[in-house]
Amino acid sequence: EGKKLPEDPGADTVDFPKRTTPAKGYELLFQPEVVRIYISLLKESKTPAILEASAGAIQNLCAGSWTYGRYIRSALRQEKGLSAIADLLTHDSEHVVKAASGALRNLAVDLRNKELIGKHAIPNLVKNLPGGQQTPAKNLSEDTVVSILNTINEVIVDNLEAAKKLRETQGIEKLVLINKSG
């Protein structure tokens, strides 16, 4: 009751539906070529505002259970965009880290993405949490830490390998410290 329906784990690739007429207006926002543009911006840009906006757009396009959200989650994986987003977790700008975390959280709704994010992004998610032996500690806002916690939660639920990676990276100790600090 109340659980999200998992996406088909066997569907490693999803093809966008073929259009009979050119996309126009708001439809331009969720076409396959737009996914490539966002990934290119994430890989090429050094400007924090562009990185934040691109990750934020991906976060919004991947939100929810709408059909194109599912297509975009798959397209981002196919186009090797998950690693570009995960790399942003180490960025100096807190706004970029928060946007990347939110995008990864929504991307993790796709089971294959969840596996890949669990395998490759958990260490950088944990590094952004307060506490532990981290030097120098990032001083992130509560909103950003909550975003990271939500992403970790989404990634480790029903994902044993990600939960093991969380343990290996001292994530559980950090979670306990956060809980004790109130």
Labels describing this entry:
single chain, 182 residues, mainly alpha, Leucine-rich Repeat Variant, globular
What is the CATH architecture term? Alpha Horseshoe
Q: How many structural domains does the protein architecture include?
A: 1
Unreliable segments of 5+ consecutive residues:
1-10
Could you name the CATH homologous superfamily? Leucine-rich Repeat Variant
Find the structural class using helix and strand composition: mainly alpha
Roughly what fraction of the amino acids lie in strands? under 5%
* CATH-defined fold name: Leucine-rich Repeat Variant
Please report the distance between the alpha carbons of the first and last residues. Answer: 30 Å
Q: Could you tell me the radius of gyration in angstroms? A: 17 Å
The number of helices is 10
Order of helices and strands: HHHHHHHHHH
Give the number of DSSP strands.
0
Q: Which percent bin holds the helix content?
A: 55-70%
Overall description:
The protein has 182 residues and is mainly alpha-helical. The chain has a single domain (27-181), classed as Alpha Horseshoe (Leucine-rich Repeat Variant). Helices cover 61% and strands 0% of the residues. It has ten helices and no strands.
In brief:
The protein has 182 residues and is mainly alpha-helical. Helices cover 61% and strands 0% of the residues.
